[in-house]
Amino acid sequence: MSSEFKIIGTSPVRPDALPKAAGTARYVADLDLPGAWIAGVLRSPVPAGRLKGIHKNPAFDWSRVCLITAADLPGPNVVAMVRDDYEILVQEKITYTGQALALLAAPDEALLAEALAALTPEIEPTTPALCIEDALAGVSRVWGEDNVMDEYRVACGDIDQGFAEAELILEQTYRTGLHEQLYLENQGMVARPRGEGLEVFGSLQCPYYLHKALAKALHLADKDLSVRQIVTGGAFGGKEDYPSVLAVWVGLLARATGQTVRLFYDREVDLLNTPKRHPSKTVYKMGLKKDGRITAVDVDLFLDGGANTTMTKVVLARACLHVTGGYKIPNARVRARSLATNSPPNGAFRGFGAPQALYAVERHLDLAAETLGLSPYAIRLKNALQPGDAFPFGQALGDNACASLVLHDAAERSDYERKRREYTGQKGRVRKGIGLSLCMHGGGFTGAGEDNMGTTVEVEYLPDGRLEVLSSSTDMGQGADTVLPMIAAEALGLPLDRVLRPLPDTARVPNSGPTVASRTTMFVGKVLHDACLNLIAKLADFLAASRGPARPEFAHGAFHLEGGAVASLDEAAEAFLARNGPIKGRAVFRPDPNLAWDEANYRGTAYKDYSWLAQAVEVEVDLDTYEIRPLRAWISTEVGRAVNPVQVTGQMEGGVLQSYGTAYLEDLTLRPDGRYSASRLSEYMIPTSLDAPEFELKVFEVPSPYGAFGAKGIGELSMDGGAPAVAAAVQNACGAFACEAPLTGERLFTLLEQLQSEPVHEITPPTSERARRDGEAAK
Ligand code: MOS
User: Fold this and answer.
1) 350 lines ligand 1 (CB under 6 A)
2) Which atom of ligand 1 lies closest to the CA of 351?
3) What is the separation of C-alpha 502 from the centre of its chain, rounded to a whole number of angstroms?
């Protein structure tokens, strides 16, 4: 705990804790919406095809409902996102199962169901590309000439020289699957006509994303639009892009009917239609000295983007920049591509490309350690980035190079080395194993994103003495409504209970950017701090003008005037209010000219700072049932500043447990008909509290100059390294080396069957993968 602060470093009870626990919090589906019409979507039953028409049954009375097809749109057929390639409704080409063909609204559910049943899409199906391999092979042309949506490359050193120096060259392919965010509250959105314009509210992360999409699709002026967040029950990235789609749909229907229109997904509709984590395939080739030192890395990474860009371009960027992990790679070549497939678009999920990338590098280091007869801990320590070292994209680290710090701590506290030796070569039905992983997460947007965002925050001192924080950042359960007021209270020396944070409404709050990328505490918090300093400066000017002559200094929550007189913030603000009326402080993000990112060459400061996490996890593997059970996890993390230690603990334990779900439990695929394999919670298992290991957490703080009070982004960090750590623990328990997550019982069974004939240390460069990759390169 940091004693130089009054509020930072303490853990006040979150304002949303009691209402959420008691069930009194009102989510969008709890709101009273008298007379609201209900929206429905006619969806494609096939993943690829041509829409020839939509047949309307003439026996149905169409005057009782509202029907909108692509031909009826008032503006461009696009939901504005990263790239304008997301159609509101299919014009002609169908690119995934569940894609919207037409919209309906009706005054009640029964009539809506009748209307939907009276519509028959006429579709000419075509062959779909359902996975990365299909897309590469050109089974179907989903995007451009070759289905490659985006590509990034990073290189450093001399790759040929690096491999020439190597004493071992190891190549392996790693895969990760689809994952669902599984926020507790399903997606939901409401649009209500308001004068010339529209009011839209619902469960969402990024109010201004919706605002932009609505303005474009509905041809509405900014002043005629208001987008409000309602209490949001979890998001994890799943409410980053998709709420814009829902907003445009209900917005169109509300404009067309003149009614309030709502669209609330149930779990089945939500699971089947909302974005998932991008499946990945990473071909990792590494050259090493016998002592474990890495001489070269050559990586080919692929993400399955699904049919549209949505967030894929930026997810790919993060994957590309995290794929060499927290290690010093003197000679590197990284090629990262996203491929378009006939899958529903994949989108944002806590970690945003980093978990996929880190799975590959962390697993590959375990393979290298096994092959060289080294400890996975030793090989990591040997290559861990030290102060002065740089990532392959040229960004050098200083005392924020905390890889060794967290690695060492996790290994020590867990007694990793001793346990790993003890567990190696066990006999018996139920075996134990311990695994280790290291990860880091770049805080905020990639590259120049934060510099270009124009993040703006305001604070207003209200006549009743309370302070309002005005920001478009949302609390989706991660704690922004606690942490942002803490930052303001600390900066102004106010008691926390006098700081308010209203739910964001684009008609009232400035654009602080989207609530994504672990950027809120770090960057929005920093701008908020600046907005508070701006308020102080205004009051100091006011005091100087009225009491003169010198400008007072602000310290310990009060203004110190000449001659030893003191004026509290409240006295100053009240005097200002009495004389001049309302007072606001305002700040805009200030880019640091010393941190430059070269987008053309993909080099430079990729992220303003990094947070770090190493974990050791001990698991139990049942060789009769192939069940994996995490027993205990030692998490060592460096977070810059733990603004609220209890919330840091929550982020860490929650995120790590969520990552364990992706390690061995959460199995989702696309069926041949382009539909997800799970449509209910009995088919998509996530870890519950009963599956949680005992957590042992240690938090280190190396304050960052770029974050509020030194804080770095931590929301996603905890999700990044769990899957390879669990895989490593299973390897330690029973010798099975997994190259694919999740390591389900079926996969573990298959690996163990293979082990019967070939011991694990012989699973070295698989030549078939090499051949397959060469084949791809030739295409
Ligand atoms: Mo997002 S995964 O909320 O950056």
Assistant:
1) yes
2) 2
3) 24
